[in-house]
Amino acid sequence: MWANISTAPFLLTGFPGLEAAHHWISIPFFAVYISVLLGNGTLLCLIKDDHSLHEPMYYFLAMLAGTDLMVTLTTMPTVMGVLWMNHREISHGACFLQAYFIHSLSIVESGVLLAMAYDRFIAIRSPLRYNSILTNSWVMKAGLGVLMRGFLSLVPPIMPLYWFPYCRSHVLSHAFCLHQDVMKLACADITFNRVYPVILVALTFFLDALIILFSYILILKMVMGITSGEERAKALNTCVSHISCVLVFYITVIGLTFIHRFGKHAPRVARITMSYVYFLFPPFMNPIIYSIKTKQIQRSILRLTSILRFSI
């Protein structure tokens, strides 16, 4: 009996009770998705083509933009499929793969923000040795380490999903697959799948946030030791973009955690909306933050627009 039921596809869910308005809801979603693709895609192109941006700080920014693009491309097809065409069915394999990429990329993003904090720490503590410490080789190793941590750490909880029997409702609570959603539908002992993610979150998101906080306490201490007010302001200004991205990312993580843990009496639509905010707001905001607060990015954008204008 379990074997037959397990082959049934999962059913994705849009906004319960608002199905008639899905076409209207899809308009802002599509606009945000396109903005994310254009914003992060433009950042990647600028960093690739502009040699003045070939520095560790911008290599890490390229990793952040690439991660945001991948998160968007992972969730966009199923979300827009549900909102546009009410296409709710998703096979087990596709669902587990989507959950794997969604959660892995979230850990990768946290790791990239941690690496960027280290970059800012070195830039302020040892500005003259910055390029000799953060070499291209070091940046590549750090990037590879961040990717491996994200993608390898999600293998243990995702693999059991493939052999669990599913004999309960096959309806998921979002328009994309999440590990915690799929896990609850399994008719098996899911103790490991409940405990492992808690430990993983503590060792990644929580630990990364603590190290970032500690690094900025040290940075603030060093900056306060600078006698020149102008130099002090200049040093702090180099950190504003990164601090903004860190706040956007971790505030959405905390908000999502709180509403799922303590907002059980909150409307279901509110919980679902918070999930979308978590996956869409940071990728949407990061290019805007760096475009507004980073002069080198601004100059590259102006150079690109002038080239495009003359070519037309």
From TrEMBL:
PROSITE patterns: G_PROTEIN_RECEP_F1_1, G_PROTEIN_RECEP_F1_2. Its main location: membrane. It is a multi-pass membrane protein. GO terms for cellular component: plasma membrane. The chain crosses the membrane at residues 30-47, 59-85, 97-118, 138-163, 198-219, 240-260, 272-292. It comes from the Eukaryota. Residues 39-290 form the G-protein coupled receptors family 1 profile domain. It is found in: Cell membrane; Membrane. Putative odorant or sperm cell receptor. Belongs to the G-protein coupled receptor 1 family. This is Olfactory receptor. It comes from Neovison vison (American mink).
